[in-house]
Amino acid sequence: MEYFFILSFLVLGAGIKFVDAAYDDHAFSKRTALLAAPLLGSLWAYTMYVDAVSATILCAILAGVLLKGKIDNWAHLAGLGVIGGVLVVSGVHLLILPLIILAASALLDEVGNDAIDKRRSRLQHKGTPGTALLMFFDHRWTLKVAILALAALGMIPIVFFFAMLCFDYAYLGMRWYSDIRLSRQPSHATVPKTTLA
Question: Crossing angle, helix 52-67 and helix 159-183, to 10 degrees?
């Protein structure tokens, strides 16, 4: 089952950025993104359904993006609708204290990511103190550190730290790929990088 979580989080991270890049950056087909969103929502819901820890982490991520208003296109709404529908029908078990900690961490990542996006060009200068801050929030390490801390305390299995690494770096990998696609379209205006939604 551990391999399932690694693979599922990997697909979900890449899939979310694919949808973002299709709608916000026009790097991919919106139609494809809209078709993929319910499938991603189904995988998200199933991954929550089969394990309470997985459900807690994914629910915390949803809480963070919802509180920051990042569900902002039809594809994400379609995926969220599938997640909500499946979970209402099937039910899901959550770990309340870890959920509070992880949701706060996910929200802090979103706030920090928005803040660095506004100052990205200034923070990217090598040797400045802001470089570490840029990397920390651009790669959303608050949530990963919180998961690692909970794992160290024996509250959740360590595999979920590695699953979260897969989620975030699959997201960043898809962002890198979408940037390459955009750079090969000379007539396309440069669009600021988007965040998890």
Answer: 40
Mind listing the pLDDT tens digit for each residue in 143-157? 999 999 999 999 999
Residue 193 lies in a domain: no
CA distance 68 to 47: 23
3-state secondary structure of 65: helix
Report which DSSP code applies to 189.
P
99 in a domain, yes or no?
yes
Q: What is the mean pLDDT of the chain?
A: 86
Q: What range defines the domain where residue 38 resides? A: 2-183
Mean pLDDT of 65-82: 85
Residue 79: C-alpha distances to residues 19, 39, 86, 106, 195 (Å): 10, 7, 11, 19, 17
Q: Mean per-residue pLDDT for 129-158?
A: 88
User: What pLDDT score was predicted for residue 36?
Assistant: 94
Is residue 64 in a domain?
yes
Do the Cβ atoms of 98 and 155 come closer than 8 Å?
A: yes
> Does some domain include residue 196?
no
139: left (phi over 0), alpha (psi -120 to 50) or beta: alpha
Q: Where are the alpha helices (DSSP H) in the chain?
A: 2-20, 30-49, 52-67, 74-90, 96-118, 120-123, 130-138, 141-152, 159-183
Residue 138 makes CB contacts below 8 A (sequence gap 6+) with 113, 116
